[in-house]
Amino acid sequence: SGNAGFQQVLERLECDPVCQRLSLKSFLILPFQRITRLKLLLQNILKRTRPGSEEEVQATQAYDALEKLIKDCNENVQRMKSTEELIYLSQKIEFECKIFPLISQSRRLVKCGELTALDFNIPSPKWKVTTRPIYLHLFNDCLLLSRPKE
């Protein structure tokens, strides 16, 4: 998005009839879609092979290898999404000191959301309650509370 020339070329290519008006993302996901179709094909082959035959053994081995590949792909996709979330969050959060590295290969964001903090002013004769928003970021290894910049 930061490179205007690239954006123009990409828009022109996506409008080209050869691309059938498909976006770049659709072309990037095609290999993964093919892998999942292969799994369906192997399931059908397994249904039609004779039990105990050499073909069944080979098809089962291929199916198991394909399932492992799909599982690895899904784990890598999740890892990349997690890293993207951490990068986005690190760009939004400003630490007073940089002793806490937010981006780590082992760290992932589990849950985040806005909460309301209640402040009780005790010295006054009437208990006055003030509220302010805070944000909770739960990672797999730590909990981070933040507040909007004033």
What would you say this structure looks like, in words?
It is built from three helices and three strands. With 150 residues, it is an alpha+beta fold. It has two domains: 65 residues, no CATH class; 57 residues, no CATH class. The chain has a three-stranded antiparallel β-sheet. Strand 1 and strand 2 form a beta hairpin. The radius of gyration is 26 Å and the shape is elongated. The two termini are 30 Å apart. GO terms for molecular function: guanyl-nucleotide exchange factor activity. Pfam families: RhoGEF (PF00621).
Total count of domains: 2
Low-pLDDT runs of 5+ residues are none
Cross-sheet strand order for the largest sheet:
1-2-3
- Find the count of extended strands (DSSP E, 2+ residues): 3
Mean pLDDT: 86
Helix and strand composition category: alpha+beta
Please give the radius of gyration in angstroms: 26 Å
GO biological process, one term: intracellular signal transduction
Protein name: ARHG5 factor
GO molecular function, one term: guanyl-nucleotide exchange factor activity
Organism: Odontophorus gujanensis
Summarize the structure.
The chain is of the alpha+beta class.
Topology:
Elements (H helix, E strand, L loop, with lengths): L3 H12 L8 H25 L5 H39 L16 E13 L6 E12 L3 E4 L4
Antiparallel strand pairs: 1-2, 2-3
Please give a handful of descriptors for the protein shown.
2 domains; 51% helix; 3 helices; elongated; alpha+beta; 150 residues
